[in-house]
Write a structure and sequence with these properties.
- Keywords: Activator, DNA-binding, Nucleus, Repressor, Transcription, Transcription regulation, Wnt signaling pathway.
- This is Transcription factor 7-like 1.
- It is found in: Nucleus.
- GO terms for molecular function: DNA binding.
- By secondary structure, the chain is mostly helical.
- It has one domain.
- Helix content is about 40%, strand content about 5%.
- It has helices at about 15-30, 30-40, 40-55, 80-95, 155-160, 175-185, 255-270, 320-325, 335-350, 360-370, 375-395, 400-405, 410-425, 450-455, 460-465, 475-480, 490-510, 515-525, 540-545, 560-570; strands at about 110-115, 130-135, 140, 295, 330, 555.
- A 4-stranded mixed beta sheet has the order 3-1-2-6. A two-stranded antiparallel ribbon has the order 4-5.
- The longest helix is centred in the middle third of the chain and has 21 residues, at about 375-395.
- The structure holds a DNA duplex (15 and 15 nucleotides).
DNA sequence: TGGCCTTTGAAGCTT
DNA sequence: AAGCTTCAAAGGCCA
């Protein structure tokens, strides 16, 4: 199978349309997606229209629809050779120029500390702009200077409060290295949800050799943990800097697990070692002794409600099992695509809205999620896939089963009761709160910027769908991807009633983007359709990457610049030209 | 103080 | 195999 091919060669005979598709994705990343948030709306509209037209013609290049001034002038064809791309990247960095960022404030950056620059323990941006922000289409990687030298077992308080998205190669390497490494990745921009990927099956344990770049580098740690790796956006968006994962009190050898993991994985990958060669971790610890951020100290999260369900069931007494379980750190599930999306976009929505309740925010995010283009969603699916991959690499023995049934027993009971009640009640008597409660009719979040971005970004148009090259190659799993708008029809109805204006208004505001409008309405009121499916990207070959234009990798000279870019930077995973 | 709410997706569990 | 359940994040709300 292609995935087992040597890195970078995981595709054979990629259809041209796939490449074109890839290009389209890039186009959107840098085009509509970026401009939608803060850019000129009219330009965006035009761009979208042009893109749609291009799709219709099958060209997909979208080169003619480029309406962004910041856009790299070079035609993508000029980067068919990785070195060309890299040269361009270097040139741009030297020029100090960077491109207007897309609406995604998160992942796109690889934060590389300048050697010798002081590391700000609290994660705040260095006044001196000590960091070099290298745009990465991947979770933020931030390696505090000297981080790799620190003994995480005695971390400084700085780490405890570090809100800087961390992660990066432990090796000192050229800033472009990450980009280069991507070229070896089997990454497919339109990658399907992880479990759909034919490349790896964490469960069956037949993963392809992991590539460092595939290891999602962000695993925020909870406060009080020895080390912390907050959300990538945490350094700029405190709300999102909340710890996601904590680390067991055992102490680590490296304050940045993911970072170290990258390093180890890099070695593994470079030597083509199979992940199986990595000794299984003990109690959530990485073989290298590096804890994973998904580990939550049992102290922090102690829910010894059930006897051990470890696969290796034994005859130990319940008490013993319970004790062992208490000792066992709680390893959280890796975040799925939507969770990643929420983490990234929550702050943005909160900032735009008057709402603060997560329930309401989540509803909005849920709708926006559906309004995202398939390409954009694909980025998150890919992130999630990598997340799971890293997770499985770190915790080969971990299973979602480990956390199953250990949380909120009351809730389950309540749900059960509710279900029984629902069966007896009419639809109107659903016990769940109507969504309207969280999404007031006054559209408190009718923020033009992001909303437009989401809506406009959505190319979920018939033409777009038809233009999807991967469609024919969609796997069963891909087709099984959630198409739904919401799992609760009644809630959806509520949303439709009370929020249609919210979405349609946005769509209407971009009249030229009729596709967006239709998409929105479709998402809300129509049965799930192909349009709302995640991109089937398993078939997107890496060769497509070879033809992909370089995503603008740029050095950001200052925190202010970083912020500026971050505010407009779209999430994009594809950055790597094949080498 | 801790569960609820809300979202989607992954994965385990149940039938 | 299909359907159901749980968990993952987030933070205000409420008992």
């Amino acid at each position: 199978m292609p995935q087992l091919e040597p890195a970078g060669g995981d595709d054979l005979g990629a259809p041209d349309e796939l490449i074109a598709f890839q290009d389209e994705g890039e186009e959107q990343d840098k085009g509509a997606g970026r401009g939608s948030a803060h850019g000129d709306l009219d330009e965006l509209k035009s761009s979208l229209v042009s893109e749609t037209e291009n799709r219709g013609t099958g060209t997909g290049s979208g080169s003619g629809s480029d309406s962004e001034a910041e856009r790299p002038p070079q035609p993508r064809e000029s980067f068919q050779k990785p070195r060309d791309y890299l040269a361009e990247v270097v040139r741009r960095q030297q020029d100090g120029g960077f491109f207007k960022g897309p609406p995604y404030p998160g992942y796109p950056f690889l934060m590389l500390p300048e050697l010798g620059s002081p590391y700000l323990a609290n994660g705040a941006l260095s006044p001196g702009g000590a960091r070099t922000y290298l745009q990465m289409k991947w979770p933020l990687l931030d390696v505090p200077a000297g981080a790799t030298l620190k003994d995480s077992r005695s971390p400084s308080p700085a780490h405890l409060s570090n809100k800087v998205p961390v992660v990066q190669h432990a090796h000192h390497m050229h800033p472009l290295t990450p980009l280069i490494t991507y070229s070896n990745d089997h990454f497919s921009p339109g990658s399907p949800p992880g479990h759909l990927s034919p490349e790896i099956d964490p469960k069956t344990g037949i993963p392809r050799p992991p590539h460092p770049s595939e290891l999602p580098p962000y695993y925020p740690l909870s406060p009080g943990a020895v080390g912390q790796i907050p959300h990538p956006l945490g350094w700029l968006v405190p709300q999102q800097g909340q710890p996601v994962y904590s680390i067991p009190p055992g102490g680590f050898r490296h304050p940045y697990p993911a970072l170290a993991m990258n390093a180890s994985m890099s070695s593994l990958m470079s030597s083509r070692f199979s992940p199986h060669m990595v000794p299984p971790p003990t109690h959530g610890l990485h073989p290298s002794g590096i804890p994973h951020p998904t580990i939550v100290s049992p102290i922090v999260k102690q829910e010894p409600t059930q006897p051990s369900v470890s696969p290796g069931g034994n005859s130990k007494s319940p008490v013993t099992v319970k004790k062992e379980e208490e000792k066992k750190p709680h390893i959280k599930k890796p975040l799925n695509a939507f969770m990643l999306y929420m983490k990234e976009m929550r702050a943005k929505v909160v900032a735009e809205c008057t709402l603060k309740e997560s329930a309401a925010i989540n509803q909005i995010l849920g709708r926006r999620w559906h309004s995202l283009s398939r390409e954009e969603q694909a980025k998150y699916y890919e992130l999630a896939r990598k997340e799971r991959q890293l997770h499985s690499q770190l915790y080969p023995t971990w299973s979602a089963r480990d956390n199953y049934g250990k949380k909120k027993k009351r809730k389950r009971e309540k749900l059960a009761q509710q279900q029984s009640h629902d069966t007896e009640s009419s639809l109107a008597s659903k016990s769940k709160k109507p969504c309207v409660q969280y999404l007031p009719a006054e559209k408190p979040c009718d923020s033009p910027a992001s909303s437009h971005g989401s809506m406009l970004d959505s190319p979920a148009t018939p033409s777009a769908a038809l233009a999807s090259p991967a469609a024919p190659a969609a796997t069963h799993s891909e087709q099984a991807q959630p198409l739904s708008l919401t799992t609760k029809p009644e809630a959806r109805a509520q949303l439709t009633m009370h929020s249609a204006a919210f979405l349609s208004g946005k769509a209407a505001s971009s009249s030229s983007s009729s596709s967006s409008s239709s998409s929105s309405s479709s998402s809300l009121g129509s049965p799930p359709s192909l349009l709302s499916r995640p991109i089937p990207f398993t078939s997107v070959p890496s060769t497509a990457l070879l033809s992909s234009p370089p995503s603008f990798a740029a050095a950001i000279p200052s925190p202010q610049a970083a912020l500026a870019v971050l505010q407009t930077q779209p999430l994009s995973l594809v950055t790597k030209p094949a080498d």
